[in-house]
Amino acid sequence: MERHVFRALGTECELLLDVDPGPDAVLALATAEGEIRRLERLLSRFRPDSELSRLNEAGELEAGDDLLAVVRLALEARERTGGRFDPTVHDALVAAGYDRSFDDLQAGGACSPPVPAGGAVRVQGRRIELEPGVRLDLGGIGKGYAVDRAVVRLAGVGPCLVNAGGDLAVAGVPPGGVWPVGLETPAGEITLGVAEGALATSGRDRRRWRAGGEERHHLIDPATGRPAESDLVTVTVAARTAVEAEVAAKALFLAGERDAAAEADVLGVPALLVTADGRVRFAGGLS
How many CA atoms are closer than 13 Å to the CA of 72, on its beta-carbon side? Predict the structure, then answer.
């Protein structure tokens, strides 16, 4: 098993490739890392020269293939989740104090009144147009997209897993038949066996900071523009792609325990919910 670890997308990225050591493995891992870094350069709101930042600054842009694809995926997700997932939370994140990369975020940062999300985003051909005052954040869904693309880069060489801070996808299986993925919970580590597809975790337990005299986290409720007040701490979801898992995990987190479990069961979305009082609940057929 070849393993390659590096930092990108504001987190630790891990690439696993189940092949014998050699030049082909080295090249494949380097290509997958290069793809993740290329997409970070395009989609990061923290890079003033990124394609996303240029769109947010100008309000309109003839977009390249990847930005266009991710914006379309984000708008489809907003529609599908009834607005619980919304890419227009950029200004709400900034208002909450998340105005720079998390690596650079310091305690005691500035904040301003909450900014509810919403506003029109139009896609016509390759042109993306933002309603005045609207800016996009593609952090979570962009990370899932990068994971999905990196897996494609590795899959032609052998069974592989790509993990970017808990958003992961696999292609092919190792000799054991599944990829064991450990999840830390108040009840101890739970290991899920992943044979195909992806997992993503959304939660308020890690990306936290203090601003305006109170503790904040990065999961914004689009309706209020404030960090979500959910009775859940984390939600982990299994789906076909990392993009789909990322969207579903965020939407279920905002729904809260009761509605999240019911929705996961109805839709058949395998989910693991960790509640604020330390309980672990399986839903959507996950057991």
Answer: 12
Contact 123, 111 (CB under 8 A): no
Strands 214-217 and 280-283: unpaired
3-state helix/strand/coil string of 120-149: CEEEECCEEEECCCCCCCCHHHHHHHHHHH
Band the pLDDT of 103: cuts 50, 70, 90. Answer: low
Q: Quote the CA–CA distance of 65 and 93 in Å, as a whole number.
A: 26
The Cα–Cα gap between 42 and 71 comes to: 12
Best CA proximity match to 165, nearest among 214, 106, 103, 108:
103
- Asked if 68 contacts 128 with a C-beta cutoff of 8 angstroms, the reply is yes
Q: What is the pLDDT of residue 108?
A: 47
In this prediction, residue 211 carries a pLDDT of 60
Backbone angles phi, psi at 115, to 5 degrees: -120, 100
Which residues, in sequence order, are CB contacts of 61 under 8 Å at separation 6+?
51, 54, 55, 67, 127, 128
- The answer to whether the CB of 105 falls within 8 A of the CB of 97 is yes
Global pTM value: 0.93
How far apart are the C-alpha atoms of 130 and 126, rounded to whole Å? 13
Phi then psi for residue 224, to 5 deg, are -110, -20
Domains and CATH numbers, the chain: 2-283 (3.10.520.10)
Residue with tokens 């076909």: 240
Instruction: List pLDDT tens digits, range 155-214.
Output: 999 999 999 999 999 999 998 889 999 999 988 999 999 999 999 999 887 765 566 666
Q: Nearest Cα to 33, choosing from 52, 14, 46?
A: 14
Alpha-carbon distances, residue 260 vs 32, 181, 198, 240, 287 (angstroms): 34, 22, 19, 19, 16
